[in-house]
Amino acid sequence: MLRSMDTMRTLLFVSVLVLLATLGAAQPQPPLNVMPMPSVVQLGAGQLAIDRSFSIAITGFRDPTVERGVQRFVAQLSQETGMLLKNKSVESANPSLLIHLEHGRQEVQRLGEDESYELTIGESGAKLNASNPLGVLHGLQTFLQLVEPGMNGFTVPAATIKDQPRFAWRGLLIDVGRHFIPVDVLKRNLDGMAAVKMNVLHLHLSDDQGFRVETKKFPKLHEMGSDGLYYTQDEIRGLISYAYDRGIRVLPEFDTPGHSGSWFVGYPELASSPGPFKVDPEGPDSVTDPTREETYKFLDKFLGEMAKLFPDAYFHIGGDEVNGQHWDKNPKIQAFIHSHGMKNNQDLQAYFNQRLQKILAKHHKVMIGWDEILHPELPKTIVIQSWRGQESLAAAAKQGYSGLLSFGYYIDLMWPASRHYAVDPMSGAAATLSPEEKPRILGGEACMWTEWVTPEILDSRVWPRTAAIAERLWSPQATQDLNSMYARLEELSWRLDWLGLTHRTGRFQMLHRMTGTYDIAALRTLADVVEPVKDYARMDSVKGPWDFRAPLNHLIDAVSPESDAARHFSAQVEAYIQSGYKDQAAESQIRALLTTWRDNDTKLHPVLNQSLLLNEVAPLSQDLSALGVAGLHALDDLDKSEPSPESWRTEQLALVERAKTPKANLLLMVVVPVQQLIESSAGQRPKS
Ligand code: ACM
């Protein structure tokens, strides 16, 4: 959402501290390709073969969620192995996989239901035990991730796994207000969430740019407050049941009193300032008027309807970033503040929230809101979602409130997975909480705000980085090893892609569209080593009003938030330097890449030259080639054990500085390792 720069600076500063505090706590992890890493893993000897006779038996409690989960499991396993496997459980004393379930699950999934499972895999069979169907679903996902191809078919390594989540609330927020995200896209993201054992899909259903749910009581909300793109109530019910089948709760958010411009298009009387309103960037903005009784009558009816549609026990009312100007400028609202003995707008918002909380309680919902709603007047039953810093989460817990961490998990900031991974809900101020206060931290949520995200690119903004956050919320706190995390993330990433997500493959369509040609090889070379600018730099670069309706079809929209190629290149350069320039395998790979980059601009130049869309990346392509030339020169000098000429280095380091400047809102991610090569070529190194 639109945040002030000061807040952002504080966020960044604190998160660097968190990063520094958590680095160095690395723990060795078993070489098991599972993400999130289970709490306890013991590797066994040998493997279980998966062949055509693979069978599943279920004992104990019979549960429809498990039946359907098993069917999906078999479908996925069949697809992966190419074998037509029995898709029904069998009555067999010796099945390949024996599932034992103790009891059923809640009709509406509850926070804190038992999600634990035990999975024992031996050469002659596997056993999966869980008390609740949710544990079975998680255990099946673990099993699927362990399947590997071999010379004689497919296998799963022998292991004993005892697993349970560290936090009960492991969510992903998707903002469907700024850009509408169709149901099928949400469903494939639910599949991705299930694969990494996340259990809450938080839908940010309304914002200034759109109101996205059909309401029968106030149809002008979705009809006038959107561009015609909204979910029907049937679609919402279908989505909730799809999520339930995968062990995922759906949490609705209707943001108020701020971020609620779309409500006022059809119902201007709710606003604190005069309309008319419209959902386009030119329209006036406003916030809800908390002083009118009619506002609460409206909210009671509206929330009553939505409380029935969304069965979850929790209901999110937003509450963030209320622009007080509209309250300041409205004499009637000012008079209300004074006559009620309130000191300021915060008190007025607290009054509004207290009323909302009572309405929600009447409709049997627990209120949840962003950290701005924290106020001593509110009952301790509410939940605080912390986005402005970890302190507010700890402060809430100290005062008796439950809370969720989202600060540090904003995936729209385009941070690398490692940076999100370093953020722990129990670190920082939360580390000093008492044993009584600690359990009030329920978990956290990754947040996918969609100012710069359309359905076409949503998956690539969410995955695979969200899996690192899923691991932080599921696995033991000591699970910290970055090399292990990245190795498993890469494995998981292709699995998620063939499950139906498009985070890896979707960009090729976009590159073809941009070039208008079959041959995208040279553009791919460039696209693979750039990343979008970080934080809200892209928003800062917008001249004039930001128009959420603009197509997102530039190179920045097609590239991944984190470049694997650049990370690998950096690691190779690191290994090469660490080896005292002796690691020949690393050197030849570095050389090959530098050569590709050196030659790339000549190939790409004609494509960029004739494309209005791609013209803006021409300077990046030139920088990449220049870096290739410089890196190769440095390697040659290193090979000859001759210091590179100082004047040459000065020139190259100037190039490096230029190449660090973002262009077309993109950052070239291989600048620093090339700089290291250039600096190394100065010659202070041992001769071999
Ligand atoms: C927020 O990002 N304003 C919750």
CATH architecture of the largest domain: Alpha-Beta Barrel
Give me the oligomer status. Answer: single chain
User: Percent of residues in helical segments?
Assistant: 40-55%
Number of domains: 3
Structural class: alpha/beta
Number of helices: 25
Radius of gyration: 27 Å
What is the fold named in CATH at topology level of the largest domain?
Answer: TIM Barrel
Largest sheet: 9 strands, mixed
Mean pLDDT: 94
Superfamily (CATH H level) name of the largest domain: Glycosidases
Which consecutive residue ranges, at least 5 long each, have pLDDT under 50? Answer: 1-26
| End-to-end CA span | 55 Å
- Give the cofactors and ligands: acetamide
Q: What portion of residues belong to β-strands?
A: 5-15%
Query: Any idea what the shape is?
Result: globular
CATH class of the largest domain: Alpha Beta
Query: Total number of β-strand segments?
Result: 18
Task: Describe the 3D structure.
By secondary structure, this protein is an alpha/beta fold. It has three domains: 40-163, Chitobiase/beta-hexosaminidase domain 2-like (Chitobiase, domain 2, 2-Layer Sandwich), CATH 3.30.379.10; 166-480, Alpha-Beta Barrel (TIM Barrel); 506-680, no CATH class. The strands form three sheets. Strands 8, 9, 10, 11, 12, 13, 14, 15 and 16 form a nine-stranded mixed beta sheet that branches. Strands 1, 2, 3, 4, 5, 6 and 7 form a seven-stranded mixed beta sheet that branches. Strands 17-18 form a two-stranded antiparallel sheet. The protein is globular. The termini are far apart. The model is unreliable at 1-26 (pLDDT under 50). Bound molecules: acetamide. Acetamide is lined by residues 1, 320-321, 370, 387.
